[in-house]
Amino acid sequence: MEIVLRNNLILITTGFDTLNTPWMKDFLNHHARGMLFLPKAVLVFRNDTLTEVREEFLHELSQHHAKTHDFDHRFFLRSMLKYGTQPIRIELEKLEDPQTVKVNLYAYDKNTVLISIDQPNLWVLNYFRSQLEVYVERGTDISLVVDVGDYKAKARLERALNKRHILHYQIQYSYDNRFMSKLYSDFASYSFGDLCKKQKDDENIRLYTLLECPVGASQDALKKSYKKLAKVYHPDKIVHESPNMVEHYTQKFQLLQEAYTALRIVS
Questions:
Q1: pLDDT tens across 52-61, in order?
Q2: Which long-range contacts (C-beta less than 8 Å, at least 24 apart) are formed by 136-143?
Q3: Do 125 and 37 touch, CB atoms closer than 8 A?
Q4: Which position has the higher pLDDT, 68 or 160?
Q5: Which of 109, 120, 170, 171 is nearest to 144 (CA)?
Q6: At 95, phi and psi to the nearest 5?
Q7: How far from chain centre, in Å, is Cα 55?
Q8: Distance (Å, rounded) from C-alpha 3 to C-alpha 1?
């Protein structure tokens, strides 16, 4: 394990054994909604309501690090506590062999989706919690029930499902042939004539959904959401990933640009 104290973060480079210790899991579970998943790493942001949890984690981390390197941890702990407000980046010190995790998707109806895995996996479920945030109604160590009753929630779900790699885990999604028809059953009752008349309105809804904004959102809201999503899906961020992933991000980035340009004119 290596710990580097930088001006803007605490960088922890370690192996998977440390990532799966009880004190590390407890810390990450508390911060599930404040985590950003990066290639081969996670970034944990400060949460003012979890100050005690963070300090306890730094104590455990300091003791573990000192034991590994055979030195007194108290001086090092004081140094780390000075960085108590900075983000903590935790990354793997070496690339592990990919491990496939099957994620099952089931739509109860157009408003509710069940996300489940066969075996408990802290990292995969915490990824979904961090992406879907307030839309999670309830969950266990192997499942989450998500409210997708509006277009913004459905867009967040689509965005979350676009990611296929978390640390060394490779996600494999599975769902039955009624999943999409249930999820988007709002459109099932439309006749061809209805769709023709409402084609323009539906296109606008699609554009707002791409930008994760409510229909009729202000120019400021559109601009803010566009900038945030453009940073997430910019192809330059994943230039070293697989060609398929780079192509997907490139297409998504282009769609965001087109949606923002079109809605700026409409609104």
A1: 898 899 888 8
A2: 137/112, 142/116, 142/117, 142/118, 143/114, 143/115, 143/116, 143/117
A3: no
A4: 160
A5: 120
A6: -75, 125
A7: 25
A8: 7
| Closest by CA position to 167, among listed 123, 231, 126, 116 | 123
pLDDT-above-90 percentage for the chain: 9
Residue of 199 and 246 predicted with greater confidence? 246
What is the rounded average pLDDT of the residues 130-151?
A: 88
Tell me the one-letter amino acid at 104. N
**Residues in the chain, how many?**
267
Global pTM value: 0.58
Provide the terminal-to-terminal Cα distance of the chain, rounded to the nearest Å: 52
Pairing outcome for strands 112-117 and 99-107? antiparallel
Report the pLDDT value the prediction gives residue 142, as an integer from 0 to 100.
92
Question: Which among 166, 193, 173, 5 has a CA at the least distance from the CA of 89?
Answer: 5
Please name which of 6, 177, 161 lies closest in space to residue 87, comparing C-alpha atoms: 6
Is pLDDT at 31 greater than 90 in this prediction?
no
Name residue, tokens 């087109």: 258
